[in-house]
Design goal:
Helix content is 38%, strand content 16%. It has helices spanning 17-25, 70-82, 104-115, 134-146, 160-165, 172-184, 202-215, 232-238, 247-258, 288-301, 308-316; strands at 29-34, 89-94, 120-127, 148-156, 188-195, 219-224, 227-228, 266-269, 279-281. The strands form 2 sheets. Strands 1-2-3-4-5-6-8 form a 7-stranded parallel sheet, sandwiched between helices. Strand 3, helix 4 and strand 4 (148-156) form a beta-alpha-beta unit. Helix 7 (202-215) packs parallel to helix 9 (247-258) and helix 9 (247-258) packs across helix 10. The model has no long low-confidence stretch (mean pLDDT 91).
Length: 317
């Protein structure tokens, strides 16, 4: 079946991160995941303690070694990634915890060594919508003028009941306020959603996708909820308080979500997984390429694509 999706050079029927970067920079670009040594307001007690219920001590489990400086982390990870992609360029990815939760002077101290690396073409900063103070926004605006910047906001769900359950410690209204602050400054935003959160139905997950789609963000990450050892989520799962999604349920949910996102929105991620030693479930999530292939096959069988429902709505109007 012919693929008519315009943001694709292959069989993908959605706007992949790889496609976006290759067409923007003309070569392979990979993220260098770094740990800037930041904490989080729902870990340090200013808003909550313990982090989100799925957090194993701070987001960014695959980020660099915190005991090393940012430059040293960058060098170590870059060399490892170059064994696979010799001619690639890089995006410095401050992944662990809340990377604007500090004065701008501290952000500058942490970010600039990564930006100074030769062949660094951009920076991605993971943070919370309620941690965007004026001085941090000014510094992000400065970065945005000199390189490719994406600020990642962890929303997970538009439903505040879910937010309270997962100990997110900010509301959907606060997310919208932070999102608007970045939009007013012309800063690219990537919004994170998690599918399979306790108490959420497929209809609720789709509603979250529709609400985010209406914002027309630069990028979106769709994550599968996975349970890691030594988390409050693991205790809830052991107590039978919720069930994990099956592969089939996840594929159906993701495809329905992709259909409502504008085709211009870049899909940075379509699943999520944990380290094999730490993962409680679902174990099928370890087979990432199987998950992605099942999504591709489902879209082909239905002859659908990213934006199909969005386009349908626009044509009806």
């Amino acid at each position: 079946m012919e693929n008519k999706f315009r943001f694709s050079d292959d069989n993908k029927r959605y706007h992949t991160w790889n496609y976006h970067l290759r067409h923007k920079f003309g070569c392979k670009v990979f993220k260098v995941a770094l740990n800037g040594g930041f904490t989080c307001p729902n870990i340090d007690g200013s808003k909550g303690v313990g982090g989100c219920i799925y957090c194993s001590g701070g987001s960014g489990d695959f980020a660099g070694d915190r005991s090393l400086g940012v430059y040293e982390q960058f060098e170590e990870i870059r060399e490892r990634m170059h064994k696979k992609w010799r001619e690639a360029k890089y995006i410095a990815y401050f992944q662990a915890n809340t990377n604007t939760y500090a004065p701008a002077s501290v952000l500058r101290e942490r970010f600039e060594p990564a930006l100074a690396h030769e062949n660094t073409v951009g920076i991605s900063v993971a943070t919370r919508a309620d941690c965007l103070e004026a001085d941090a926004l000014d510094y992000l605006s400065e970065i945005n003028e000199r390189t490719y910047l994406v600020v990642e906001l962890g929303l997970q769900s538009i439903f505040d009941g879910t937010g309270r359950l997962i100990n997110r410690c900010h509301t959907y209204a606060e997310f919208l306020e932070g999102y608007e602050k970045l939009q007013r400054r012309g800063i690219n935003v990537c919004v994170h959603l998690i599918d399979g959160l306790p108490g959420e139905s497929a209809e609720m997950m789709l509603e979250s996708a529709k609400a985010v789609a209406a914002l027309r963000p630069h990028c979106v990450k769709l994550h599968l909820l996975h349970v890691l050892k030594n988390t409050r989520l693991a205790d809830m799962y052991a107590n039978g308080e919720f069930e994990l999604m099956t592969l089939e349920e996840y594929v159906e949910t993701v495809v329905s979500q992709l259909e409502v996102f504008p085709e211009e929105t870049v899909i940075q991620r379509l699943t999520g997984d944990g380290g094999r030693d730490a993962l409680v479930g679902p174990m099928w999530s370890l087979k990432k390429f199987v998950v992605l292939n099942e999504i591709d096959k489902r879209m082909v069988r239905s002859d659908t694509y990213q934006g199909a429902k969005c386009a349908q709505k626009n044509s009806e109007e």
